[in-house]
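Thanks for the sequence, V.! I ran Elongator complex protein 1 right away. Repeating your input here for the record:
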Amino acid sequence: MRNLKLLKSLRNSELQGPGSPQCFSIRADTGSLLIASQFSITEFDPLTAQVVREASLTADGFLSEDGSGGVVGLQDLAELQSACLATAGGDVVLFNLNTGQLECVGSVDSGLTSMSWSPDEELVILTTGQETFIMMTKDFEPITEVGIHQDDFGEGKFITVGWGKKETQFHGSEGKQAARRKVQEAQPAVAWDDRRPRVTWRGDGQLFAISAICPQTGGRKVRVWNREGVLQATSEPVNGLEQALCWKPSGSLIASSQRHPNKHSVVFMEKNGLLHGDFTLPFSKDQAKVKELLWNPDSTVLAVWLEELSCGDDGHVNTYLQLWTVGNYHWYLKQSLDFGRDPQKAPVCICWDPERPLQLHVVTSSWNSITYSWGWTTERSPGLDVTDNASVAVIDGDKVLVTTFRQCVVPPPMCSFELQLKSPINQVTFLCRPKGTNQIAAFTANGQISVFSQVSEEQADKTSDGFMVVSQPLVLQKTFRLTPAQEQPLALRQLLWLQDELFLAVGAGLLPTSSTILMLHPIQDAEDTLAVRSEMEVDGVVVGVAHSFQTGTVALELEDGQIKKLLWDCPELSVEDWRDSSGCSVSFPVPCIQTALCSISGTEYLLGLTDRSHLYAGDTELASGVCSFAICDNFLLLTTHSHTCRCLQLSGLTVKGLQAALASDGGQNDETLRHVERGSRIVTVVPQDTRVVLQMPRGNLETIHHRALVLAQLRKWLDGLKFREAFECMRKLRINLNLIYDHNPKVFLENVASFIQQLNSINHINLFLTELKEEDTTSSMYPRPDGSPVQPQASTGQKKVDVVCDALRTTMESMDPNKFSLSILTAHVKKTVPELEIALQKVHELRENPPEAPGGVSAEEALKYLLFLVNVNDLYEHSLGTYDFDLVLMVAEKSQKDPKEYLPFLNMLKSLEPNYQRYTIDRHLKRYRKALVHLSKCGQEHFTEVLQLVKEQKLYSEALRLYPADSPQYKFLSCAYAEHLVEQQRAEEGGLLLWRCGEPVRALQAFTSSSSWRNAICVAQQIPLPPDQLALLARDLAEKLTEQRRYSEAALLLDQYAKDCEEAILALITGGIWEEALRLIYMHKRQDITETNLKPALLEALNTQVVFLEAQVATFTRHKSRLAVVREQKEKARLDMLDEDGPDCPDAELYSEASSVLTASKYSQSNSRISSRSSKNRRKAERKKLSLKEGSPMEDKALMHVIGEIITTVDKMRGKQTQEHPSFLF
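Predicted structure:
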């Protein structure tokens, strides 16, 4: 849905030459024009308007001096730095572009009718006067000469498989009449056909086609040849086929023109010669002739050069140039250039630029050269408010196809409505005024501006044939003619509709390098005439105009990338440089073909997109690989070559932030990123909405709701308490409904009543409740935009789901409990701990007291709804938990359970004593704590079951709370609990419990097994134990303590309770507790132990420490010496690198480790899986790096690490030795 917009036109009238131009070519390297006439060849630079070089073709006899000769072909050869031209007399001449010399490289006696070079400039085809063609190399060595007219079809001849006669075969929609249809006789070519052959190459240079007059029929035939000059196919007989021929560079179709009895068409052929599609020219069958067809280099535009057949009163004919594009199999006439009847202004040569696909060069008969440069644009309404229909206007000849995307999405070539005009349209623009952006102005080829606007609501027809009119068509309000009239086609460009009757346009300047800004306004005496109210000359060629609807700014982009600000609302027009916040001039580094004004963090910027897909904000490149972009509602939307659509809010970003956001790949929940189909382009964005319309490469449309736009709109609605709009949007687009609460919990809880009133739907409230989760969606799924304030959370200690459910339930109960009964049940069920019993009780209340109000919910309906929310088995069990058998029966009846399954069980329960009944129910429901409470109330006869239940479910603490401390039940339970604790390796706790319950013997056993010797001694003396048994107990405990290396405690037991001082002293000596051992020796006067045990033990400990210290000293000395050697080697390696011009920097000493470190990186690679398993393995991997092996890369660090450990160890021993020092003084 794009149009062609004229960016600039360059006209030169300085060139004058003898004769009239006949052929011309473009130099790809310099952009200059090579023009050949019947007298000379000239190289002309249109930028400087200077003749670069010129050579006479008559001086050397290539053409006759009387001007009767002609040039049939001209081609620039970049590799040879020459231009090749062919004359009708048969000469092939090279024009050296460096020296200006002419050289004849060959001649054909029969003359030449055309010349065509292959796209790679390796081969040339020359058609001769004898109806043959000569294929030559770029060095002009002949390859073959073949007759153009061949009797054979070619190598691609169709094969008949012999499936019956033609009359009996299937003919599709044409029916059986197709078999009986007579073959039309071939008709000769039209009278005005120049009867010259036309040669055209496919883009890859592998095939070429020749259109020539068939000698037998007199009509034209097209033959396709390969690169070796072998015929491939011959076209089917086509009556009315004309001379124009051009192969689409992409290789799919060959374009020509055909005159039908009732129309004039451009037709397309495949390489096998069969017709494949066409489109009709907007002329009657005998009105105009097609002189040439020209595809642009990227195959997107087809230029049709036409000339009227009938002369006017002045004897001259009109000449047209039309540009056609195709989309969705429909051909659109995008630009129509009417050159008028003046023969001096009529084009004689037309050619597309080989480097710039949308640049067209025209040379007129008066030697004027015109260069037109177009760009693709999407004409969309500005989108200021909700009244904007998001209209997109598509030019199609004399019609404007308008689609209003706010109301409907109509795939092209269809549209919402058409605007019919009397002349082809070249430009369309929308009014840049609030509540008027749906108005359209169309600038036609005859120099008129037609204004279309909406009719008033009173005049609008609301229905049509019984259907509602959704999109109201626009009606023609006024047609302006321009004064003075424009003499040249496309004299005005970049039309902008600023105010109701004020237009801005760009025209040619006085110099080729300047432009004129025109402000057009109706004349007071003639309201249908637009005149220039003010104008000004701009130094530079204006290629882009952008207007900001919010600020009224008009920005101009010049050909060299400069950005100017146009002060148009002043009495006199003026321009000034575009400056940034620091006052510096800003310009695009590269000229842009699409521009738009926007505000980024409060600063106005001009965004520009180049033809190389680079997006700029002033002189800063934002992103590359951008296909299209649009500005809407403070959002920047763009599609990329990586098949994504980005949407960024400009108010919360700086230019650097915008760069970073566009450079990032986006996270999992990045709302700014969305994947789209390959090659998608933005058509429009519906203002104040969430819809983005994309067009695919094949032409079809797709509407997406970009997540960033959706969330931004939802936040606006939620801030404005428009809960209904937000809910409907979220339900439609599958946005998590938790966002309604998470966006601003405090505000939501304060406006719960408004939320319920706006939704006013039980189903919608239930849907909201069922989607509630504890997750905060603003932290996970839908993060808040950067810079947005964090909303205060509700100041409650409860969980989110419980808070919302309770708030909604309380409000609904206060508003209308009967109406919202189902939603109230939902609020009970959806809590984190479902309140199913309460919900079931409410259902039971409905059964006992049915609602009297009309529309109330019955108990059966409520129960059915509960069964929908909750599993039937869960609901049945929870109904059992209410101990209400009427409620249980009601649930069981609705649950499709077999009565044989539940009735016997219920009857059995009814026969039980109430407490035992509840115990049985709770045990069945596995509610053991409740079951224990009810069972404890059943009396002494059921205590055995209590004890069994407590042991099975380990409910000891709960059971002890149910009985008095002096009861026998409490004692039994305590003993059972103590046994459980002993089994769980908690013998000391079990012993305390047994001691408390009056079981000292069992408590003593528990304390002894847990080595709790103090409690054991206390219990033993409480029993009391005899002295010999007490001593034996002390020895047993001391033995266990010794095994646990608790020597001091073992010695205390042996000394005080076993009365064995010798064993106590030996225990202390074994534990190295020298001072305490010495104290007991002197206290019990056992100095003999000093000589027999203490001194040998001390000497052995001393010798062990001395040996250890000597080993540490030796290791320390060895590592210290090695460290000095390693450091010396590394210093030498560093100096060697510096001598070899290595890097001179403070880190140069590290470079010696570079190769080794790279080698050592195998640890981080090969051990990457291992190191991720545990911290132990990570430490192991680190130790591997610090290897003490000589020559290892980290040897010096490993040595320093080991030396540090030695120093730490010895330092710790010094403190210990000080403590032991007094023991050596005895």
